[in-house]
Design a protein that fits this description.
By secondary structure, the chain is mostly helical. It contains three helices and no strands. It is flat.
Length: 95
Amino acid sequence: MTELEKYREQIDLIDKKLIDILAGRFEYSAHIGNIKRDRGIQILQSDRWDDVMASRKEYAIKAGLSEQFTEDFLQLVHRESIRIQNDIARNGPEP
């Protein structure tokens, strides 16, 4: 195995871990969606989102990630969380 192949193999493993971590995060989003639906809580809570964005950006920048990448990534994750919670609000709990 070449040096390049070794690095690519490591990236492949990390990508799978990232996917597993995101799947776990979205499971929690579903749990939160169930709670919000049951208690009549609005799905989008701007103050919470602003706090999350600020704290995660600060953490990511310290870790060496660019601010723009971090914003784009967090927006994408947040949109998926909202989609999941909207589905739950419309269709009931996920299995």
